[in-house]
Amino acid sequence: MVGLQRSWSPDSPAYPLASASQPAPDDAPSPAPASANMGRPRILIVKLTSLGDVIKALPVVNDIRRALPEATLDWAVERPCDSLLALHPAIDRVIPLELRRYRKERRYAAGFVAALRDLRSLRAHRYDLIVDLQGRMKSALVAALARGPVVGQASGSMRERHHDCLYRKVVPRAAVAGLDAVSANRALAALALDYPMPSDEASYGLRAVRARPISFGTPPSSPYAVLVHGSSRSEKCWPEARWLALGRALHRRGIRSLLPWGNATEEARARRLASRISGAVVPQRVLELVDWAGVLAAATLAVGVDSGLTHLAAACGVPTIGIFQASSVAIYGIEGRVPHRNLGDEGREVSVEEVVGAADALLARRAFALEFDLVPGSAARSAALTLT
């Protein structure tokens, strides 16, 4: 573990993590936790993309705050995820980066100017420790450009090898092997900052936001479920016929379907489904992440494939069903305190009956909690949505 002490030195002999050129022995002894001697360290988290991966790293913020309440905690991330991180009250400074936009748009001159701006922002402070939670060449470069010693996970044997040569110290991959994505992030941060691995359930810590009027056509009093049907990978998607059956089953239970979209293909699918599901609504435009945080927080239920928006729903405290057909539930499934169900697994189909059964169970649990006022902020949540 990394001993980030008051007179901290990354070359201290009490630093048992591997260096970039020397692996740590499996039986290396761990020093006593140094959190009591840390003073007021400034820490930078580097987790750039994607939305789902950034959300799965959010629990480390509360973990660090609990272990090091006096720390200053910054986070470097690519836009548009910066707006989401701004909703976390325990993050002192969000450093937004533009690493893909200008290259994608082939606006290289503008991209160069943006890169200089981002570099100045990234290097505005000296950090006692920089923790790369992404573990890719791009994130390692960003971390190395910031001012301070970097800790990150050892590179794998398959792709993007040798990025760990940019780290001052390296966490062996065996230290987080077999953990789900959320737990792996939490373990990596704990090892880097030398505090015990938390044993409680993950808490995402996003501040509740009031949904802004966004012209859905849904009255505020109408219960609705967000059906996240789109994904960046087509093999993760659920067949349209099953979404249609689910939407109709929810309608029979008095719940309208809200069908989000982020590109032309998803919009066409959303409108096809909405035309055949009574009461279903489709956003008139692509919503910002802050808008989605408000919309999701006021939803009755969320059902989605393995995508960033599904994980955002869970982070916002919405009872959530995840449909996993092309990714491992053990690694990428929904985690945390929110009521949830992970259905399917890599290579296994998920039936409509499974999803409806899980929805009924979560809805019954929610109804019980509301009846006995066991849902924190439930009164405020019911009044938070102002869809016009």
Description:
By secondary structure, the chain is an alpha/beta fold. The protein folds into two domains: 18-193, 3-Layer(aba) Sandwich (Rossmann fold); 224-384, Glycogen Phosphorylase B (Rossmann fold), CATH 3.40.50. Helix 1 runs parallel beside helix 11 and helix 2 (59-67) packs parallel to helix 7. Helix 3 links the parallel strand 3 and strand 4 (93-97). It has helices at 51-57, 59-67, 81-85, 101-105, 108-122, 137-145, 181-193, 240-252, 264-274, 289-297, 308-315, 329-332, 352-371, 378-384; strands spanning 18-19, 42-46, 72-78, 93-97, 129-132, 150-153, 169-171, 224-228, 256-258, 301-305, 320-324, 340-344. It has a seven-stranded mixed β-sheet, with helices on both faces. Strands 9-8-10-11-12 form a five-stranded parallel β-sheet, with helices on both faces.
Give a short synopsis of this structure.
This protein has helices spanning 51-57, 59-67, 81-85, 101-105, 108-122, 137-145, 181-193, 240-252, 264-274, 289-297, 308-315, 329-332, 352-371, 378-384; strands at residues 18-19, 42-46, 72-78, 93-97, 129-132, 150-153, 169-171, 224-228, 256-258, 301-305, 320-324, 340-344.
CATH homologous superfamily identity of the largest domain:
Glycogen Phosphorylase B
* SSE run: EEHHEHEHHEHEEHEHEHHEHEHEHH
Side-by-side strand order of the widest sheet: 1-7-6-5-2-3-4
CA-based gyration radius: 22 Å
Total domain modules: 2
User: What's the total count of β strands?
Assistant: 12
Task: Describe the sheet with the most strands.
Answer: 7 strands, mixed
CATH class annotation of the largest domain: Alpha Beta
Class by alpha and beta content: alpha/beta
Low-confidence segments, given as residue ranges, are: 5-37, 377-388
pLDDT averaged over residues: 83
